[in-house]
Write a structure and sequence with these properties.
Radius of gyration: 25 Å
Structural class: mainly alpha
Shape: globular
Mean pLDDT: 84
Largest sheet: 2 strands, antiparallel
């Protein structure tokens, strides 16, 4: 059993630790949406200050550079989209601030991974949030049983500006209009977002070495996934379990001996298996038919308007949909549709390239490094949720995962450079040995 406390050892770690463990405090203040961007940009400015004034080194790997260029390309698409659509300077300034609080964070926090921040500290902090969730959840259930107001209040901080009042609301519970049953979103703007955060916390709890904190983290994260009642969250959680089991047993010959009969049976009964899978997918969609209908309609509208109106640079801003989609923003609930509508093919290409470069950089060390495996799992969660959420609007929630991704990239770069140096040194060592042997006097 690990007895390490993992207390912060420097000011950067202290800031990250207090921000994560203070999640429910910031939620009670209605400041969750504001805290992450402020912390992220403060740490980046501190990094630049140390680089300029103290000549400290800065660890930046190629994948992190690709994320920086991708998000700058997003900003370029935003500016050109506003100019083409004649949206005005005031709207451009507002949208640029939104970019700094949204898409920019996908480059800011991996860059912060170059600071002296240990991933174990982030794992422990997320387990502490899981503990707080277990302690507070009975109060949220009691609020539902007593029929207290679903939302206590909306923080005055909402005057700063944001996507909507739900990002600043202190909500005790909500009622699903389809089933009439309660759902909880806790410190997130809507219930499926809680499922996404729960998956990141589940991933980090699996890495925790202290048994007590590991139990807190696993129990709290699984609770978040279940009370969100999100189908994608449950699927993602199961995918993480399968992924880490594969990583664990990939080198074992027993895995392939067990998998071979499975593939053989799949070939024989493949058609019936596919039919069962299709029936399961249909039943899952039917369980929340209204939600599925709205998601599909939002995606269709986004694709049609993108293809017919703004293919390259997009429309520049988010627009509300018609009554048939309950006036939800066009392209919401789907990162790729949203990107195509707002930032065109340029924005979608930028995100796709950044994800691709990240995956390629972690693949060589996937089986040798636990941190690389965790970084790949972060990418897997992000990729899965591009089909169910807008990453931009929820970046202020999953930013700890982005820091871990940055740390993983930097570690993979260091390991690659060490391997390269060792390969260069081997021939020189062999040459020096041969020359020393040649200069030794003969025994004759």
């Amino acid at each position: 059993m690990d007895t390490q406390t993992y207390t912060p050892e420097n000011s950067d770690e202290r800031l990250v630790w207090l921000t994560i463990t203070g999640t429910y405090f910031f939620w009670f203040l209605g400041a969750m949406y504001l805290v992450a961007p402020v912390i992220g940009w403060i740490l980046v400015l501190r990094m630049l200050g140390r680089l300029l004034f103290y000549a400290e080194g800065c660890r930046i790997s190629l994948p992190i550079i690709s994320w920086i260029f991708a998000m700058l390309l997003m900003l370029l698409a935003l500016v050109i989209g506003h100019l083409v659509e004649h949206l005005g300077i005031a709207q451009l300034i507002k949208s640029s601030i939104g970019w700094a609080k949204g898409w920019a964070l996908l480059a800011v926090f991996p860059l912060i991974g170059g600071l002296q921040i240990r991933p174990q500290l982030i794992y422990r902090a997320c387990c502490v949030v899981g503990k707080h969730t277990l302690i507070l959840f009975p109060l949220f259930v009691l609020a539902w049983l007593l029929h207290l107001p679903t939302t206590l209040y909306v923080s005055p901080l909402s005057i700063v500006g944001g996507p909507g009042p739900e990002f600043f609301a202190v909500s005790l519970y909500e009622i699903d209009p389809g089933s009439g049953m309660p759902r909880w979103r806790l410190f997130t703007p809507w219930a499926p977002a809680l499922g996404m955060v729960g998956n990141f916390y589940f991933l980090f709890a699996l890495q925790e070495t202290n048994k007590r904190y590991r139990v807190y983290g696993l129990a709290g994260s699984i609770l978040m996934v279940l009370i969100s009642q999100s189908r994608l969250a449950i699927l993602c959680c199961l995918a993480l379990v399968c992924y880490f089991n594969f990583i664990r047993y990939a080198k074992s010959p027993w895995l392939y001996l067990l998998v071979s009969p499975v593939f053989l049976l799949a070939g024989i009964f493949g058609e019936s298996v596919l039919s069962s899978i299709e029936a399961s997918i249909h039943s899952v969609k039917a369980a929340r038919a209204d939600s599925t209908r709205v998601r599909e309609a939002l995606g269709q509208i986004a694709l049609e308007r993108w293809a017919n109106e703004a293919i390259v640079w997009g429309h520049g801003i988010v627009e509300r949909g018609p009554h048939m989609v309950e006036y939800m923003p066009i392209g919401s609930h789907h990162t790729w549709y949203g990107l195509l509508f707002v930032k065109g093919i340029v924005g979608a290409f930028a995100l796709a390239v950044a994800l691709f470069v990240s995956v390629l950089s972690l693949l060589p060390s996937l089986m040798q490094s636990r941190l690389s495996a965790v970084g790949m799992a972060v990418l897997m969660i992000l990729l899965l949720y591009t089909f169910g959420e807008n990453l931009e609007i929820l970046a202020y929630l999953f930013w700890p995962g982005l820091i871990v991704l940055g740390i993983a990239h930097n570690q993979a770069r260091q390991a690659s450079s060490l391997r390269h140096k060792s390969l260069l040194q081997e021939p020189s060592l062999q040459t020096s040995q041969q020359s020393s042997e040649a200069t030794q006097p003969s025994a004759d």
